[in-house]
């Protein structure tokens, strides 16, 4: 379990984190509808990943929350304040973009201090206070001592950590991150995920993290919101959306799945007139597609509810071992994860049991 979101105060009783309520947002660009009736409630201090393929409307929704785009319908609230009543400055948004390079001609310290120095005089901290805050932020993003470096003297991962420090410098009430690790190598992305999760647990900002990488979203977020063609298809914890996808799109987007054409009668699914899974609830009955993740297939000895097949291929990708199993009456082979099972031999007759699946009616 992740620790519950906490509201912190830094300056007086001005809360650093707020709830964000997105209510019935429509957004068109000329004739193109980029967002359709999008509603989403984000708790104070919550870390939400906005996940979807390229073009699904993620950046548009983030820019709407930031006040950089206007909605055609609906509204965004920070706490109980309609953001249309707030100036861009009063929204206090920390924004990190994928390709938004740091200011090249400024040092790291100048980059981080930028938002503070551009405040109106009355709200601007003095030089010593800015220096202290820059140091504290470099400490926070675990890059102490880099004040005098220029962006060109940093690695890609360091640059994005400095960009995050710059976003945090203005004491944002909401942190918006648009594919901040998108341009980095896979290995560095993984390290930065753990780093960001840890940073969030220490600072507790309400955070919306945009990504098209399902692994990144599932690993980082308290809840994942899945966008598809401008619509929110499902919002839930990583376990919810992965194990109980609301739509075939969500199921396929979040990871591999075998798709079995079945007939549902009562609470049972039948493949080729053979019962293969019981205990199904919330189904209408009739023809359905049963989606089964490769690790939800087990090799078994007993016959009840198992599917007979022949091992056709064994594969290995990195640490994962897979078996492909041919089943009579099924056009596609079953893809089965062998990571925690004894590997069969090619040509072996086996029985396969479904341990978990989601059914979607097909007619
Ligand atoms: N300013 C704009 N003018 C016209 N179309 C736009 C504009 N911004 C975004 N779009 C379109 O809206 C859709 C969603 O874009 P975007 O929110 O950037 O998607 P994502 O971030 O999920 O890749 C895309 O088809 C894009 O071409
Ligand atoms: Mg985008």
Automatic annotation (TrEMBL):
Name a Pfam family for this protein. Answer: ABC_tran
> GO molecular function of the protein, one example?
ATP binding
Name the keywords, alphabetized: ATP-binding, Nucleotide-binding, Sulfate transport, Translocase, Transport
Any GO BP: quaternary ammonium group transport
Q: Which GO terms describe its cellular component?
A: ATP-binding cassette (ABC) transporter complex
**Which CDD domains does the annotation name?**
ABC_CysA_sulfate_importer (cd03296)
Q: Which family does it belong to?
A: Belongs to the ABC transporter superfamily.
- What's the protein here called? Sulfate ABC transporter ATP-binding protein
């Amino acid at each position: 379990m992740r620790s519950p979101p906490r509201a912190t105060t830094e300056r007086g009783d001005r809360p650093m984190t707020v709830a964000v309520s997105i209510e019935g947002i429509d957004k068109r660009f000329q004739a193109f509808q980029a967002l359709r009736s999008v509603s989403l409630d984000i708790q104070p201090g919550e870390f939400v990943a906005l996940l979807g393929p390229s073009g699904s409307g993620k950046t548009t929704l983030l820019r709407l929350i930031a006040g950089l785009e206007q909605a055609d319908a609906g509204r965004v609230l920070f706490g109980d304040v309609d953001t249309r009543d707030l100036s861009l400055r009063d929204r206090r948004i920390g924004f990190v973009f994928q390709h938004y390079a740091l200011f090249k001609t400024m040092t790291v310290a100048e980059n981080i201090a930028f938002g503070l120095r551009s405040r109106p005089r009355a709200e601007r901290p003095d030089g010593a206070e800015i220096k202290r805050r820059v140091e504290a932020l470099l400490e926070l993003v675990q890059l102490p001592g880099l004040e005098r470096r220029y962006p060109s003297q940093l690695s890609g991962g360091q640059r994005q950590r400095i960009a995050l420090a710059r976003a945090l410098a203005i004491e944002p009430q909401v942190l918006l991150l648009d594919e901040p690790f998108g341009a980095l190598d896979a290995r560095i992305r993984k390290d930065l995920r753990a780093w960001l999760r840890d940073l969030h647990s220490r600072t507790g900002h309400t955070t919306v993290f945009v990504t098209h990488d399902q692994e990144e979203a599932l690993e980082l977020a308290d809840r994942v919101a899945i966008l598809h063609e401008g619509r929110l298809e499902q919002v839930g914890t990583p376990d919810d959306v992965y194990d109980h996808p609301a739509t075939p799109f969500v199921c396929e987007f979040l990871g591999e799945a075998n798709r079995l054409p079945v007939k549902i009668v009562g609470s049972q699914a039948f493949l080729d007139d053979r019962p293969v899974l019981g205990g199904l609830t919330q189904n209408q009955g009739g023809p359905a597609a049963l989606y089964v993740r490769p690790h939800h297939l087990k090799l078994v000895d007993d016959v009840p509810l198992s599917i007979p097949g022949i091992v056709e291929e064994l594969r290995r990708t990195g640490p994962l071992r897979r078996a492909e199993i041919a089943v009579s009456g099924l056009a596609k082979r079953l893809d089965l994860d062998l990571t925690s099972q004894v590997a069969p031999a090619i040509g072996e007759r086996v029985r396969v049991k479904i341990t978990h699946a989601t059914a979607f009616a097909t007619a």
